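Possible regression after last week's pipeline update?

I re-ran a chain I had predicted before the update to compare outputs. Posting the input and the new output here so someone can diff against the archived version. Not blocking, just want to make sure nothing changed silently.
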Amino acid sequence: MHNPQLNKNGELQHLLTIEGLPKPILNHILDTASSFVSVSDREVKKVPLMRGKSVFNLFFENSTRTRTTFEIAAKRLSADVINLNISASSASKGESLLDTIDNLAAMHADMFVVRHGQSGAPHLIAAHLGRINHHHVHVVNAGDGRHAHPTQGLLDMYTIRHYKKDFSNLTVAIVGDILHSRVARSDIHALTTLGVPEIRAIAPLTLLPGGLEQMGVRVFTDINAGLKGVDVIIMLRLQSERMTGALLPSAQEYFKSYGLTPERLALAKPDAIVMHPGPMNRGVEIDSAVADGTQAVILPQVTFGIAVRMAVMGILAGN
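New output (post-update):
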């Protein structure tokens, strides 16, 4: 079965999901990103790999942070960036998703960065571009429904590799709203492919999807047991828009049972790092003392995210 993300030479054509991507491709993206980060790790270099190319940010769902980092990344590559807030325009006129794509492809787009509330929308767009013979147009999934968020997964891997050097002897815990999290899915696929021996999922039963054990993940409903001896803690945002109803009693109750406090962090290895895809709900999934503490690498994640998104777009544009 041909992977729709790869061209016939096995090179990356689209980035739709981490699932099924071979390890050498993941490492190539991480190595490329690494070449864009300055020695001090504070800065990302300018690399004019996409001069004269047009990147269209198609955000059918709001996300200021992700859109901004993609925009900065594209500009660091010297691309022309066009931001389209689609939810406000064509969708309300009743234009279909693929009509919108046809019109933009006719404007000589080179790349679409797509954020969509429906799982599978970026795949649909990529398949459509192949059918209408626009093979030179690349699609990057910037988050689709509950399905995948591959660049977040990659920047998480970059962050882990940066601090821990090697994946082969780590225990990584993913904590929180795993059920609704496309980040968790992308992280699990990436960690597995890169050879992490133990991946733990820590959450209340109501926020655990089925099938985690089949993916090789150890499931914990007790956070204290789950955090024991881990090297990396990936906190997930509680999607407060989904807090109502039967899933959870209240944000305060959640924090009491699953919030990352200094006491709970002390159960992990002394050099454990704490990650969070942002935006954080302080006092809900993470205590401010931890978020602002020495073990948190949440702000470096943002810098690395720019380099990783540059790497993805640069590699796609080069193939």
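Follow-up from reviewer: compared with the archived run. The chain has a mean pLDDT of 92. Marking as no regression found.
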